[in-house]
């Protein structure tokens, strides 16, 4: 099935049978999936990702809010071109993107399941971020749920905010935590972390970032 045929399948068999809602802009999109064959791969704050069994190497990212932002993400993928740590854009519609599928486990899920995160993954993401900066982008919103690892390699799976001009320290903060805490004390034992604990850390970190933005510098 080529991309044009796949687009027809998306618009006939996927889009009419899913409902995406966003009660809270800080939480992932909620999905009601009434399709026959499409699998929900995951959801972010703006969009949800689906896969079809006949197209195992691609996914479809459907925007559930701020649909106009899809134009910015398309431009980001054009700027990135082909890079081993990023997905690729194969096609798009009015509210969806067809992307190369990156298999693996997110750093967030690795923490929950007790899967060790090797230093090479962190190094790969550092290099990917440097590359994005070299092509004129601003790598924003790189965090544990947007980074995937497979076979000891790291990949960034969400670049939707790379066009923004804001200063984002999420990856810097995660990297510091990795080297200061995880690498020194947890990498060898790699225990499982409860979901409630990680969500508590995530919410506390988000509140701290909001407070820092509101607090004027001395």
UniProtKB/TrEMBL annotation:
This is Serine/threonine protein kinases. The keyword Kinase applies. Keywords: Kinase, Serine/threonine-protein kinase, Transferase. GO terms for molecular function: protein serine/threonine kinase activity. It comes from Halalkalibacter akibai (strain ATCC 43226 / DSM 21942 / CIP 109018 / JCM 9157 / 1139) (Bacillus akibai).
